[in-house]
Amino acid sequence: MTKHRKTLKPGEADHRRPSEAATLVDEALGRREARGRHIQFADHITESMTLIHGILNDQEHCASGGSVLGSLLRLEAQLQSAQTRLEPRARKDSHHHREDRRRVIAYYTQFSPIFNHPSPAASDTSLEALRKRPRAWLTNVTSSSHLVPSLQTRKREISSRKREQDSLFTTSSQFEPISVEDRVRIAFEIANILQRQQFLRKLTKALMLYGCPAHRLEYILKHVSDTLKVDAEFVYLPNIMLMTFFDPETHTTETHFIRQSLVFDMHKLGEIYRLEKLVGHGEVTVDEALEFIDRVADEPQFYPSWLNPFIYAIISVCGSVMFFGGRWKEAGLSAGLAMFFALYELFSERFWGFRPIWEVTVCIVIGFVSRASTKFGFCFIPTAFSSFIVILPGYYMAIAVIELISRQMVSGIVRTGYAIIFSFLLGYGVSMGSALYRAIDPNTPTDTAPDCQLAANANTCIVSESQYYHFLTVPVFSMAYCLLLRARLPRWPTVIFVSVCGFAVNWLLSCIASAPSQVIQVVPAFAVGLIGNILTKITSKMSFDAVLVAVFYLVPGSLGLKAAIGIFSGQESAYGSQGASFALSMIETCIGIAVGLGIANLIVYPKGAQRTPLLNM
């Protein structure tokens, strides 16, 4: 027969269990161990006590099998209950045994004339007495009070075993031996486990949000979880982390999916790195770590959002002169288009419909204006490319190659495909904008001027302006990226120093030594990674921000864009027959950067970090 639980009406509550659970929660929070804990520890205690209270008191939960942890709790309760009932039951059984013997002896004495074969006269008198006995006599004889003592003992043993077999399906009265002290102890153990798991979840979200390199996420989280003695596994996909917590003693698992987009903030990432070191060395408790993460997350943004248009403009001016062979007038026009790009980005964030296509639409506008400016002596490539240099996918391609080298196949392949498709997406938008203007004005001149031909083949050594301007543009480019990545002022000298060193090595190998392309791809990345790792080892501070800005000088985001324009523009562009070669060059350069950074890590940390997880590229 199926049992149904009483359905509560709206506004009606079960007053018995919540009141009992609330009493236990108050008892736990009043203990000395609960003082000074994190603000959410009370929530963990409440959740733990509710779980314990539900397992011990919910009859339907017990009948349905429950979990292994619930079975262990019930087993502990049965053992304690059996120990407390053992001595009283033994005394009671001995008392019943004596009573049964006395009743059997009295019964035998009462009917002894029958069993002893009396004389016929006596027999007739006894038989007459037996005939007049009440009908309930037989029932009284065969009742439990008149059975043989050995049979009575066997009956009690059988019924006792049956009750023990059905003990898992009985009411909560059998769990009374679990004292309040035991429940509070179990609640504290479960609350501490929940708190460590919550810290790992918050740490994961912070690392993903503030810009931790993707190939280091699993390594860092595994290192921290081992330090906290939490049995967990982590699998990273782009913008998604899969976390699974194991309980080998109870054979249970708990999986979390954490989704978080990337917003670079080097100052907060440095604070999280400092927290990792303290946790790894056991210098802070989990409560202090949770409070620190909450304080970092609640810290307001240091640089206001209205600075973004000016930051984009500065980066576009420097990038136009250094990377795309632009003159100062193309740099000025690209700065104006970059400010429009920043405002358009802020506009698209307020309207959900623009988010999927805002990069394409803004590139159409930029391509249209850049093609129109060629009537006034401007060059198309430096004007258009440097306008959205901030979103060029060179960094994502470099990270994708590093992930593939690190044997993280899924995220590496996904990110590689995204970088290539995103390059084609931007190139498609620019080509469409240019084609739209040429449809309006077919007499628009192409990039046939000598300066524009020079810009089309620009590289580190071939630029339109004097290379002495690099002494100005390289540090200013680094400062602008410090603002964009939310690095604080004390970190600027280190970031600028590493960036200048990387650019200097690249320039010397390209322009002075005329080294092969493979050497130019590997050695600058090795120099940047080596300097960053040495600074980390000496200062015990994160150098990822400095290495990241320096890598922006090396990543070939423009190559992917040139490949896309070559594919979509056909023979009208200087890149018409070079689209595939540009795409292969982009992948080849990223492989060289990954190899250089890997060699630098091998030299400085041949055995890896012993107690502090590395946060570098």
Walk me through this protein's architecture:
This protein has helices at 16-29, 41-57, 59-63, 68-110, 112-115, 120-131, 137-141, 149-165, 180-210, 214-227, 266-280, 286-298, 308-322, 328-350, 358-373, 380-387, 394-405, 409-440, 450-456, 470-484, 492-512, 517-539, 544-552, 557-569, 579-604; strands at 232-237, 240-247, 252-259. With 617 residues, it is mainly alpha-helical.
Mind sketching the topology for me?
Elements: H1 16-29, H2 41-57, H3 59-63, H4 68-110, H5 112-115, H6 120-131, H7 137-141, H8 149-165, H9 180-210, H10 214-227, E1 232-237, E2 240-247, E3 252-259, H11 266-280, H12 286-298, H13 308-322, H14 328-350, H15 358-373, H16 380-387, H17 394-405, H18 409-440, H19 450-456, H20 470-484, H21 492-512, H22 517-539, H23 544-552, H24 557-569, H25 579-604
Antiparallel strand pairs: 1-2, 2-3
Helix pairs in contact: 1-2, 1-9, 2-9, 9-10, 9-11, 9-12, 11-12, 13-14, 13-16, 13-20, 14-15, 14-16, 15-16, 15-18, 17-18, 17-25, 18-24, 20-21, 21-22, 21-23, 22-23, 22-25, 24-25
Order of SSEs: HHHHHHHHHHEEEHHHHHHHHHHHHHHH
Radius of gyration, in Å, reads 40 Å
Q: Report the structural category.
A: mainly alpha
What is the mean pLDDT? Answer: 76
How many strands, what sense, and barrel or not for the largest sheet?
A: 3 strands, antiparallel
Strand order of the largest sheet: 1-2-3
- Supply the number of structural domains: 3
How many distinct beta strands?
3
Q: List the uncertain runs.
A: 1-18, 59-68, 111-123, 133-155, 161-176
Straight-line N-to-C gap: 65 Å
The count of helical stretches stands at 25
- Form type: elongated
Strand content: under 5%
Q: Into which percent range does the helicity of residues fall?
A: 55-70%
